[in-house]
Amino acid sequence: FPNPFSAQAILQSTYFGNNAMLTVYNTFGLPVKEIKNISGKTVLLTRDNLACGLYFVRLMEGSTVIATEKLVIAD
After folding, report:
1. Would the pTM count as exceeding 0.85?
2. Which of 17, 22, 52, 65 is geometrically suited to a Cys-Cys bond with 35, CB 3.0 to 4.6 A?
3. pLDDT surpasses 90 at 1
């Protein structure tokens, strides 16, 4: 939340991750951002240099997919 967002979003999971990784993909399926070594249920995602548009996020722990969601970045 919030979704859509313009500067940052807080992503929450019911799963307590340990050394998980969040990957942000563009609409072409290309990874555009990674956050590694995530522990806990909450991740702060900052926009940085990402353009406005639709993105997909995947939270993984090892080879296990924990969650996959859509995010929209707006101005």
Report:
1. yes
2. 22
3. no
- Say if CB 75 and CB 54 are below 8 A apart: no
C-alpha angle 47-23-40 in degrees, rounded to nearest 5: 90
DSSP string, the chain: --SSBSSEEEEEEEEEEEEEEEEEE-TTS-EEEEEEEEEEEEEEEE-TTPPSEEEEEEEEETTEEEEEEEEEE--
Give burial (CB, 10 Å; 0-12/13-18/19+) of 42: exposed
pLDDT at position 73 over 90 = yes
